[in-house]
Write the structure tokens for this entry.
Amino acid sequence: MSNETSQYDSFVRITPLLVGGLIVVCCTILIATVIFSKKTLSSTPTPAVPAPYVSSAFDELHLEAHAVYVYDAKTESALFEQNAYEPRPLASITKLLSVVVAQNEFLPGTIITISPEALATDGDSGLFVGERWVLRDLLRYILTVSSNDGASALADVYDQHHTTTFVGAMNEYSKTVGLSSFSFTNATGLDTPTTGRAANFGSARDVALLFAHTLTAIPDILDATRTEEGSIASLDKVHPVSNTNTMIDSISNAVGSKTGFTDAAGGNLVLSFDVGIGHPIIITVLGSSREGRFTDVQKLVNATRAYYKEKE
């Protein structure tokens, strides 16, 4: 047999093996490609689908106030805010801190006597020289009618018996409880007489937190601010009182409030109401107008109730 014949026979025998091996290799490559493709596809992030827009009850509110803060005191969270961290003139919202500091500094049952110096403060709230007040009743009166005379009397009595001033105590107390935006130069909130500029400042957020603190520290003092009309007695006279918050009776489940207005500050208002049992909401508006503050708060109360209704 020739060499050519032998080589041909060998080729014929080997060919099926080569073809089979080639098929196996191709199949292996194909399978590996498919597996790799699937892994690559599975590891590729799926493009994010935008979440559907959920309308908020606070959308498209038209408010006069420059700064706003709506605070859920139960969850300790903000529901709505606008320029809420910017210090603004406080006007008579100042008296909230004056009352809290007085309650903290004076002994329970302290008698405060109204001095001529206290009555020299702008704004006549019906007090008279020598009138004697039990501390708790004077604090309620100050908040309800926004008595400059009463706040000045607190500062006068404190200053007579301490080496530090009442205003200094207010600034120190606000730092102690973490209200860092606050700064005070008087106990009333009145503008500075010589310049007409605002004397006291704080943010809408810190006002809401102060009110929440007041609800915890002296809730009974705020009771008098829940209604428009009433009476509060000193040791010498029964005073009819008209709440400076003229809208309070229109707010169901109101907890309390404090107003403020000066030329430099504009219209301010902080108000608390219960949206459910044991669920207080606190609304602060700063830098509105005299009447606009009430309209702004009413809109925010309505929006808050609508917000919680949506969540039911």
